[in-house]
Amino acid sequence: MSRARAINTQPTKVSSERMYEVIRRPVVTEKSTLASEHNQVTFEVPLDATKPEIKVAVETIFKVKVKAINTLRHKGKVKRFRGQIGKRSDRKKAFVTLQEGHSIDVTTGI
Q1: Burial class (CB within 10 angstroms; exposed 0-12, middle 13-18, buried 19+) of 3
Q2: pLDDT, average across residues 47-57
């Protein structure tokens, strides 16, 4: 038996406040700069952000078309600081692939 995946065809509704919460900041690293050659932009997002929310936020704020979104949860390391044990916070990154002809310049503000 094959299992069909239910596809949600309803658009995700996101408030304007939530859109600006979802896109926290662009990640500017050597790896993300190399990915920009392939129409990809990397953003830091909250841990509870979903792919549909991220897509709506990027398309609305930057007025571009999104092709795909991949997310990555980065667990925080346990580190020592002056003999005290501490933990870096967990982070989530979203790798946003844009449609051909669309681009986002992360060096300028919104």
Answers
A1: exposed
A2: 95
